[in-house]
Amino acid sequence: MIPSLGTSFEGCYVLIGDDAKFATDCVEILLSLNVKIVAIVGSTAPTVESYLKKSEHSSKIGDTLFDSSTRPWDEPNVMSITSENALLGINGVLSIY
Where are the domains of the chain? Predict the structure, then answer.
């Protein structure tokens, strides 16, 4: 779904893939724009979390959920976050064909 012009969101959740460097770069761009990230979900979430805690953006990730689920739609904690908030989902997965 593409939001209509003027739509606002309380925050976003980011789905990430196996490329931790690419995922971290995506998240850092969002944080530098002061986007509130509610959850970062994907297999490399612990790696991204570890890096961000040492970065200049560490103060911006205090309440962020880091979940290493590879199938986030099966995880009740992730589903409760995404269903109870006005969130924008961002896919931070690098695909090379």
Answer: 18-92
Is the pLDDT assigned to residue 97 strictly greater than 50?
no
Cβ neighbors of 82 (< 8 A, separation 6 or more) are 13, 39, 89
The Cα 3–Cα 53 span in angstroms is: 31
- Tell how many helices (H) and how many strands (E) occur in the chain: 3, 4
pLDDT in tens, 44-95: 899 999 999 999 989 999 888 898 877 766 767 666 665 555 556 666 665 5
Tell me the β-bridge partners of 32. none
Handedness of CA 91, 8, 56, 13 (dihedral sign): negative
